[in-house]
């Protein structure tokens, strides 16, 4: 490169310009200790179109600056560190619409930021390693309606969140997610936004303990154990009805005290045989007669 500018101790220092061997301007701006540092503009030498305009450090983009697609269209406006996007910045598409507006770390989306699709908001929330991670909101770009708000991990719904219908914006599901599917405890709603199930889920299906409802009336239609979206055990039909209290067995009627066996009626004392009447001849002496009379 050909340099035109100030030197200090044999090194480029202060304001200067660098040209390629064809004499076409490549850089104009500040130098420190022989390196581009401070404010300066870097050009595509053949076309003369600026590639970068902003702050430099140790020969690299560092600080606030603008990276260009062409002489009129910016690709990125914001913070740089060691030559890559860092800090707050806006990334544009080739058509000039916003692609991302938010925080960067070492050239990757990280922190709070908004992503757009064809200029329409797609995601608003936290990022990590270039993916949705943390709390955020996802939108349907066709209807611009909110379709999910809650926790993300590695770009997928993970943790507690709420899903909405993209056309009516009514709730579809609220509860726990894992790898983008309903997993854990949650509530499911019908197309009118009325609750139709509350309980456990596994891989997007009702699975475990739960209660199903009629969406129009709110009446319970099933309660118990679900497997793969089917109620397999309904507590309402399997629970035994409460039994009436068991009565103590009726006691046998109390018997009257046992009476001693009835004694045979006492017989009248046997009378001595009646003596023969005195006027019956017995061969004995008559009354008044002396039995010894006439004996001599």
* Strand fraction: over 45%
Count of helical segments? 1
Number of strands: 20
Rounded to the nearest angstrom, the radius of gyration is: 57 Å
From the structure above, extract its key features.
rod-shaped, mainly beta, 296 residues, 1 helix, 57% strand, 20-stranded antiparallel β-sheet, disordered C terminus
Question: What would your notes on this structure say?
Answer:
With 296 residues, the protein is mainly beta. Helix content is 1%, strand content 57%. The protein has a 20-stranded antiparallel β-sheet. Strand 9 and strand 10 (108-117) form a beta hairpin. The chain is rod-shaped and about 95 Å long. The model is unreliable at 256-296 (pLDDT under 50).
Strand and helix layout:
Layout: E1 2-8, E2 11-19, E3 25-32, E4 35-43, E5 50-57, E6 60-68, E7 74-81, E8 84-92, E9 98-105, E10 108-117, E11 120-128, E12 131-140, E13 145-153, E14 156-164, E15 171-178, E16 181-189, E17 195-202, E18 205-213, E19 220-227, E20 230-234, H1 235-238
Antiparallel strand pairs: 1-2, 2-3, 3-4, 4-5, 5-6, 6-7, 7-8, 8-9, 9-10, 10-11, 11-12, 12-13, 13-14, 14-15, 15-16, 16-17, 17-18, 18-19, 19-20
Please outline what is shown here:
The chain has 296 residues and is an all-beta fold. Helix content is 1%, strand content 57%.
